[in-house]
Structures are given as structure tokens and as C-alpha cells.
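Re: weekly structure request thread

Next one in the queue (173 aa):
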Amino acid sequence: MQNESEPLLRLIKLLRAEHAELTVRGPRFCILHRLWQPETICTPGEMIAEIRLMHRTKQVSLPLSSRLMLLFDYLARHRRLAQCAAQIAAGLSADPFSRRQGAYAKEGPTTSKGLSRTAVKQQIMRLRAGLQTAFRQAGLRLNSGRVLMADRTVTNEVRYRLKAVVEWQHTRY
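Done, posted below.
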């Protein structure tokens, strides 16, 4: 005979396991690239259409501008390597995907000039605010500072890295 508290205990165990996974791996995101070229993987010229937070059965679109989506995509592709603002600015300027974002569109590339080190810091703050909004909408009690992490060095330089599980989807249109 089943104890009447067993379903509740199973739910508690499930929620604890979910929380542990979120703590260790971070939340799950899906980045949607448009203008995909058949028989390729991810090429310069594609355009970031949307970034979604995936939680249980919910998909919440992150309220980000094109520039913030580009920064998120860059951090996601380099999430195993913490970088300071100057490295991120240089990386975005040199990265072919970032430089040619949207080049497959008829009107040509949609990105403007690169970001400075100071601008990267400002964009990081805005990106965290967008993440926090999406977490609230999904019913997640996460701190965006624990997802878009800032690691201090011995010289007080701050290195940023994204702690998340990220997947990319590609569509031709």
C-alpha cells in the first residue's frame, strides 16, 4: 500500500534534482539563427532571430536587442573561457560571425561598429537585466549574476563567462 506522502516526497526529490542541475550546469537556452545556408553548420552571414530560455515546458523569449543577442551568442560560443571586457570587445570585432551577422539578408549586414571595453561592461549589465526578466517570466528563481558570471582576478580584472546549456537551431527564413 502506498503511503499518501510518497507523491509529495517524489516531487520534492524531483525539484531538488532540478535545482541541483540548474546550479551545476545553468539554465538551458536555444539560439535561433535565420538565413541558414543548407549543408552548413553555423556560418557568417546568418542572423540571430531570437534567444529562448527553455524551462520545463516553457519557452521564454529573452527581451534583448540585436546587439545584446550578438553578445549573448558570442559568450555562448566561448562559454568555457572567461574573458575580460577588452577580450570580448576584440573577439567580437575579429569574429567572422559577429562581423557578418545578417549578410545573407538582401539588405546586407545589420551590425554596426564594434564595441569598446566600456561598452561591453554596459552591455553585460543590460544582458543581465534581460536574463532576469526572462527568469521571472519562466518562474525561475535564478540570479542572472550566477548565470552571466563575473570572475575576479588577482589584479581586480573581471572576466565574464556564461554558465548555461546552449543549443542552436537554424532556419532558412
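The helical segments are 6-25, 66-77, 85-94, 96-99, 117-138. The chain has a mean pLDDT of 87.
Next request, please.
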